[in-house]
Automatic annotation (TrEMBL):
Keyword GTP-binding among record annotations: yes
Location relative to the cell: Cytoplasm
One GO molecular-function entry: magnesium ion binding
Family: Belongs to the TRAFAC class OBG-HflX-like GTPase superfamily. OBG GTPase family.
Phylogenetic classification of the source organism: Bacteria, Pseudomonadati, Thermodesulfobacteriota, Desulfobacteria, Desulfobacterales
Organism expressing this protein natively: Desulfosalsimonas propionicica
Classification via HAMAP family: GTPase_Obg
EC numbers on record: 3.6.5.-
Protein name: GTPase Obg
Binding site for Mg(2+): 173, 193
Residues holding GTP: 166-173, 191-195, 213-216, 283-286, 310-312
């Protein structure tokens, strides 16, 4: 199934029903007064956050939504039936924007919350509403008001405790498949992961936490290279970043170059991302020369805490999970800048 995290939809609330022009007609009352009922109100279009959804996939083939209109008023002062509201469900983390102005209308975070994005039109008043002492038999009624129409842009930002970032082929997919039940595609070439993947980690103690495998970033990602801006958007929601570095690819002459390049892309997209708490992890420690390159990285990093693992063999992974569990469940953070 294709992961969809950005979509445009058009919504239209229901029109209000028109008021009725009617007069009371009963035996022995030849000149009964006006008794036209009001029209019913149009239905609203409401967005509801649902924990059952993970992507915006339901909008792949349906982009236009229309709420029901209100019923027309009838004689004998009968009010038309109100139009039924239309409820559209979205996953947590969905940001609703006005397509024309790009203004944020609502940020859907808590499952079960609802928000009206288009209000239904009011029903028109029937002719009995217009009777006066000088006009006892009005022959006009109001039409119903049109419902609101809007074009909306939905952006999904994954909600996760830990976001795994790094260059393509750093081993992010292998790591998340090792520590959680997630099973992303794993292969020995860049850009294996083209969609964000969520996995739930269940430590021995403490509450389970959610890890997001963010597709590999490349130079120029904050300007859109390699779909970078779409991937970086998901990083904004994470509490902590796990910065995964391929130890076998560390530059011996400039060990921190790759690490700094990723942080530069974060800062270019949103300066606050570069200040987000990080856990720096050197992966692929089972490969030749990785130990020597890792030592060079650690020396250059100074006081920056560094964890060494091999996601492929599992070495050091348990200790990493314990560290992440400590950070997430105790509220502690590691500054990786």
């Amino acid at each position: 199934m294709k992961f969809i995290d950005e979509v445009v939809i058009d919504v239209a609330a229901g029109h209000g029903g028109r008021g009725c022009v009617s007069f009371r007609r009963e035996k022995y009352i030849p000149k009964g007064g006006p008794d036209g009922g009001d029209g019913g109100h149009g239905g609203n279009v409401t967005i509801r956050t649902s924990h059952r959804l993970r992507t915006l996939h339901q909008f792949r083939f349906k982009r236009q939504f229309q709420a029901a209109s209100g019923g027309h008023g009838q004689g004998s002062q009968k009010t038309g039936k109100n139009g039924q509201d239309l409820v559209i469900e979205v996953p947590p983390g969905t940001v609703i924007r006005d397509r024309q102005t790009d203004e944020i209308i609502h940020d859907c975070i808590t499952p079960g919350e609802t928000f009206v994005v288009a209000k239904g039109g009011r029903g028109g008043r029937g002719n009995r509403r217009f009777a006066t002492s000088t006009n006892r038999a009005p022959r006009h009624a109001q039409p119903g008001e049109p419902g609101e129409t809007r074009s909306l842009k939905l952006d999904l930002k994954l909600l996760a405790d830990i976001g795994i970032i790094g260059f393509p082929n750093a081993g992010k997919s292998t790591l998340i498949s090792r520590i959680s039940s997630a099973r992303p595609k794993v292969a020995d070439y860049p850009f294996t992961t083209i969609n964000p993947v969520l996995g739930v980690v269940s430590p021995e103690t403490g509450e389970p936490f959610v890890v997001a495998d963010i597709p590999g970033l490349i130079q120029g990602a904050h300007q859109g290279a390699g779909l970078g801006t779409r991937f970086l958007r998901h990083v904004e929601r994470t509490r902590v970043l796990l910065h995964l570095v391929d130890a076998s690819e560390i530059d011996a002459d400039d060990p921190l170059s790759g690490y700094k390049a990723i942080n530069s892309e974060l800062a270019g997209f949103n300066p606050e991302l570069a200040e987000k708490n990080q856990v720096v992890v050197l992966n692929k420690m089972d490969l030749p020369d990785s130990q020597t390159r890792a030592q060079a990285f650690t020396r250059a990093a100074g006081n920056l805490p560094v964890i060494q693992i091999s996601a492929a063999t599992g070495k050091g992974v348990a200790q990493l999970v314990n560290k992440l569990n400590e950070i997430v469940n105790s509220g502690k953070h590691t500054n990786g800048n």
